[in-house]
Amino acid sequence: MSKQTNWQTKLYDFLSVKKNKLIVLLIFTASYLILFTILAVLKKNYEFVFYSIFLFAILLFVRFYYKDLRLTVPILVLLSFFGALHTMGVNIYIGNTRLYEIYIYPRLFRYDNLVHIVGSFTAAMISFNFLRPYIESVKIKSKTVTLIIIVLIALGFGAVNEILELGAVVFVDAQNQVGDYMNNALDLCFNLLGSTLAAFYIRSYMMEKKEERNK
Amino acid sequence: MKKQDRYPFICLVIFIAVFIICAIKPVYPRDHLLESLLSIIFVPMLVFTYRRFRFSNTSYTLMLVFMIMHTIGSHYTYSNVVFMDPITNFFNFSRNHYDRIVHFMFGALMYYPFFELFKNNFAKKDKFVKYLFPFFFIVALGAIYEIIEWLVTIIVEPELGLAYLGVQGDIWDAQKDMALKFIGALITMTIIILKNILKNKN
What we know:
The structure holds 2 protein chains of 2 kinds. Chain A is mainly α. Chain A has helices at 2-15, 17-42, 46-65, 73-91, 111-135, 143-172, 175-178, 181-206, 210-214, and strands at 93-94, 97-98, 103-105, 109-110. Chain A has a two-stranded antiparallel ribbon with strand order 1-2. In chain A, strand 1 and strand 2 (97-98) form a beta hairpin. The N and C termini of chain B lie far apart (37 Å). Chain B has helices at residues 3-23, 29-35, 37-48, 57-76, 85-90, 98-121, 127-156, 158-165, 173-201. Chain B is built from 9 helices and no strands. By secondary structure, chain B is mostly helical. The longest helix of chain B is centred in the C-terminal third of the chain and has 30 residues, at 127-156. At the A-B interface, helix 5, helix 6 and helix 8 of A face helix 7 and helix 9 of B.
C-alpha cells in the first residue's frame, strides 16, 4: 500500500505543475544563455564569455540545489528574468549603442540601472527565503532589524558582482565594458534601491502580520 | 563590575585612550572629524547593545584592533600615514597603501564578530546562513562605505571629499577596496570552517 502511495506520489510530483514549470524555466534559461554566448563568441565579446561561465555555473548550482537553497518558483522566475535582462543588455545593440548604455529616461535612468534594481531585488528575496525559517525563533524580534539584514545581504551580492567586474578588467581586459568609479558608485546605489524595494515588498506582503500572529 | 564585563570594558578604555590621543592635533582636522564618524557611531552602538548582543572576548579584541587601525588612519588621513612611508619608498609604490591594508583588515578582523552575530541570533546549524551571510554582510558594509565616500565627494565638499576618499588617482579604487574586504573575509571564513572541521573530527 505504502509502495503504491510512493509510486503515485512520484508520478504526481513528476506531472505536477511545479515540476513542469521548473523544466520550462530551465530550458528557457539554458537556451538564452547558449544563444547569447554563441553570439558573444562571434562578436569577440570576451567579457560576456567570462560572465557566461559564471552564469552557467550558477544555473547548474541552482538546478541541483534549488531545494536546499529554498528557492521557490517565483524566485526562480525572477532569477531567470534577471539573467535574461543581463544577457540582453550585454549582447543587444540599438544602432551602435549597447542596450546597457541606453537611457530609459534621458540623463537619469539607464537600462543598466534597471538591471541592478531587478538583480538586488532578487537577491533580497533569496536572502529573505533563507532567513524565513529562523525569523520567528530568533532573539531579534524586530522586523526592521531583519529587513535591514536582508537589504545588507542583497547589497553584498551586488558588491560581489562589482568585484567580479574588477576581475573581468584584470583578467580579460574588459576595461571599456564595465565602467569606472562613477559607474560603480551608481551601480551600488541602484543595488541599494532594489534591495530596499524588496524589503518594502517583503514587509507588506510576505511577513506575518502582528494581528495574524496574535490569532 | 562583573568578571565577564571586565574584558570588554578594558577594550573600551583602550580605544577611548587611543581615540583621544589621535584627536590631538590631527594632520587635517576636518578630514579627521569626517573619518571619525565611524568610531563615533559604531562604538556607542556596541556599548548600548551590550546587554542584548554580548560578543566573545575574541570578537572584542578583533574589533579593537580594527578600530585602532582606523583611528590612526583618521589621525594622519589615510593617504598620509607616516608609518607607511618607509614601505612605500622601499617598494617604490606610487601611493600610500595604508587604506588598502585597513580595508583588508576590515574583512579579516570583522568577519568573526559578524559570524558570531549570525550564529547566535539566526542559525546555529544552517551552514549557509552561519558562514556565508556574515561574508556578504562584510562586503555590503564595504559597499555602503564606498557609497558614503562617493556622496561625500559629490555633495559635502568636493575638495575635502577627494582627500577623504583616498582614491589617489585610481578609477578602480572602490572595487579594489571592496575586493580586499572580500579577500580578508574569505580568509577568515576559510580558517573558521577548517577549524570547525578539525574540531568535529577530533
